[in-house]
Amino acid sequence: MAIEPLPEYEHKEKVIQADTLFEKIKQADSSNCLDQNKEAMLTIIDFRASNFVESGSPVHSIKTDCKIIKCLLDDFSKPEVRSRIPKKGLVVLVCETGNRAWAAKRYLSQYGFTNIVNLKFGMRAWIKAGYPLQ
After folding, report:
1. What residues have CB less than 8 Å from 33, skipping those under 6 apart?
2. Residue 29: partners with Cβ closer than 8 Å, 6 or more residues away
């Protein structure tokens, strides 16, 4: 089986800064994370590396009442994982540093996801800013 190349796409302005995400989380949490059509306003996909997750150290995640999908990068190839990702509303990819999020976003774009942004500098930016963790 030949491996298909990932589709080309423009990734300009497809990142979100930690401070902007913090404001969007406050807004979404105050609305039960649903818009006026009862669609998800915000979903976080936390896909940090298995060696980080399985390190035995406590793994904190972004604090929100909105949906958080925790998976590994390889899990995006599974239809059952992709089916949990909404095609509407803001979806934010979160990895350790923001670097692997570009590959994940590019991969997911071939399945029609156009509502995905990367957290710039990943979880490190969130923690460095001192925003709430769970």
Report:
1. 40, 41, 42, 64, 65, 66, 67
2. 64, 65, 66
Q: Render pLDDT for 14-58 as a digit per residue (tens, 0 to 9).
A: 899 999 999 999 999 999 999 999 999 999 999 988 766 566 667
The domain segmentation of the chain, as residue ranges, is: 15-129
Element (H, E) at 43: strand 42-46
Burial 63-83 (b: 16+ CB within 10 A, else e): ebebbbbebebebbeeeebbe
**93 contacts 119 by C-beta, under 8 angstroms:** yes
H helix count then E strand count, the chain: 5, 5
CATH topology of domain 15-129: Oxidized Rhodanese; domain 1 (3.40.250)
Distance of alpha carbon 90 from alpha carbon 92, whole angstroms: 6
Query: Alpha helices of 7-48 — where are they, by DSSP H?
Result: 18-30
Per-residue DSSP letter, 115: S
